[in-house]
Design brief:
Shape: globular
Number of strands: 17
Radius of gyration: 18 Å
Order of helices and strands: EEHHEEEEEEHHEEEHEEEEHEHE
Structural class: alpha+beta
Strand order of the largest sheet: 1-2-3-8-7-6-5-4
Mean pLDDT: 88
Number of helices: 7
Distance between the termini: 48 Å
Strand content: 25-35%
Low-confidence stretches: none
């Protein structure tokens, strides 16, 4: 099985023999599917000078071991290894991605739990894509982003700070979604900085739905995965055609939740 997408002119091809992976990709990446871009939902202009990013995904009961040489860098969740043009992103307990920086091919092996646990699958996909996107002048940041009259509001904060709840409130007031979790900063050839959309589902806690009349009935269509009480749903399930593919970054906000209020 394979799914083809256009991410701001960058062609991306996913291949997998796992039906669960295919279903997740089709749901998350639907607004950027080739069929959607041809219908004007996203930028359908392919950048001919760039190779197609091709990612092959498979599952294994246990992730493969890390490469047998010292790491390039180690972070809280991911360790990177570099050998020539081969970059490996190793995520203990969840999987490993071998990224060829020259050919733009990615081989990923993940555990079944990665697919069924909230947030993990989406995070691993952007971890694998990020090194290739950076070489094409796209830089992923962790934030919620929405557009109001072509100007992007960027909500930044740790997990639980209220980014998604604040962002959904903006959407209920007519804002357009750029990204729920990983918007892309893009530097154009002319040096202009744009904030570009990246696919993903909206997520919130079930009791939050009662605050927003627009979300009535969402619970029946939403998905709940292991590891979180949050539910996830597609933007188009509530607001069809409300993606904003790019906007001018204008304001940074740092929401926080005050207990008891």
């Amino acid at each position: 099985m394979r799914t083809r997408h256009q991410l701001h002119g960058e062609p991306i091809l996913f291949r997998t023999d796992d039906a669960r992976i295919c279903t997740r990709l089709q749901k998350q990446w639907a607004p950027f599917a080739v069929e959607a871009t041809q219908n004007g939902r996203a930028d359908a202009t392919s950048r001919a000078q760039n190779r197609t990013i091709e990612m092959r995904l498979s599952t294994s009961s246990a992730p493969p071991p890390p490469p047998p040489y010292p790491p390039l860098s180690t972070g809280p969740t991911t360790t990177y290894y570099l050998s020539g043009n081969r970059l490996t992103a190793y995520i203990p307990h969840w999987g490993r991605f071998d990224i060829d920086l020259k050919t733009a091919r990615v081989e990923g092996t993940i555990t079944p739990a990665c697919i069924s646990t909230y947030g993990v699958f989406e995070d691993m996909i952007i971890v694998a894509l990020a090194p290739l996107l950076r070489r094409r002048r796209f830089y992923a940041i962790h934030a919620f982003a929405a557009s109001i009259d072509g100007r992007a509001a960027i909500l930044i904060g740790d997990i639980g700070a209220g980014k998604s709840t604040t962002g959904i409130s903006l959407l209920c007031q007519g804002a357009r979604l750029i990204s729920n979790d990983s918007p892309l900063l893009h530097v154009t050839e002319g040096g202009k900085v744009e904030l570009c959309a990246y696919p993903g589902l909206l997520s919130t806690y079930p009791d939050t739905l009662s605050w927003f009349p627009d979300l009535s009935g969402t619970l029946d269509r939403a998905e709940r995965l292991d590891g979180s009480e949050k539910i996830s749903f597609a933007l188009d399930d509530i607001w069809p055609d409300r993606w904003e593919m790019s906007a001018s970054p204008t304001a940074l906000f740092f929401p926080s939740i005050i207990p008891g209020l």
